[in-house]
Design brief:
Layout (H helix, E strand, L loop, with lengths): L9 E8 L3 H16 L9 H19 L5 E9 L2 E8 L17 H12 L3 E6 L6 E8 L1
Antiparallel strand pairs: 1-2, 2-3, 3-5, 4-5
Helix pairs in contact: 1-2, 2-3
Protein name: ATPase
Keywords: Kinase, Serine/threonine-protein kinase, Transferase
InterPro entries: Anti-sigma-factor_SerPK (IPR050267), HATPase_C_sf (IPR036890), HATPase_dom (IPR003594)
């Protein structure tokens, strides 16, 4: 997500302590950034995108805080696309279930189902040093 993508010229980066307030702040920032980019809160993809984002940040707070004092959210948009990635420095790469019938249960199953229902993609990528990862979501608008 950090590599330049000319098809996603609108960008914003937010780094927060890996604490419970990170979920609210990441979500509020997404709402503000989307509004600045002309993507209103009534757009059909915004509600599900905010839920997906909240779940991914909450997972970083719940599972990565011991090894990752910060969580970084990358927001990007371009014609017909909204993308975001949630990055932490915990090395575990959770598998994203393939809907329907994912086996991990819980939040990541919801993430996969919502992403697929919107016609988007979800990818987990390890940091080059193996000590962190990003989960990137790309959604059509």
């Amino acid at each position: 997500m950090t590599a330049a993508r000319p098809d996603l010229p609108l960008r914003h980066v937010l780094t927060l302590p890996t604490t419970g307030s990170a979920v609210r702040i990441a979500r509020e920032t997404a709402e503000e950034v989307l509004a600045e980019w002309g993507i209103g809160h009534r757009h059909q993809a915004v509600g599900p995108a905010l839920l997906i984002l909240s779940e991914l940040v909450a997972n970083s707070v719940r599972h990565a805080a011991a090894l990752s004092p910060n969580v970084t959210v990358f927001y990007a948009a371009g014609p017909g696309t909204f993308a975001f990635a949630v990055h932490d420095r915990h090395p575990h790469r959770p598998p994203l279930p393939v809907p329907p019938g994912g086996t991990t249960g819980g939040g990541l199953e919801t993430v996969a189902e919502l992403t697929a229902a919107l016609g988007g993609t979800a990818v987990v990528r390890s940091d080059p040093d193996g000590h962190g990862k990003s989960i990137r979501i790309t959604l059509p608008l």
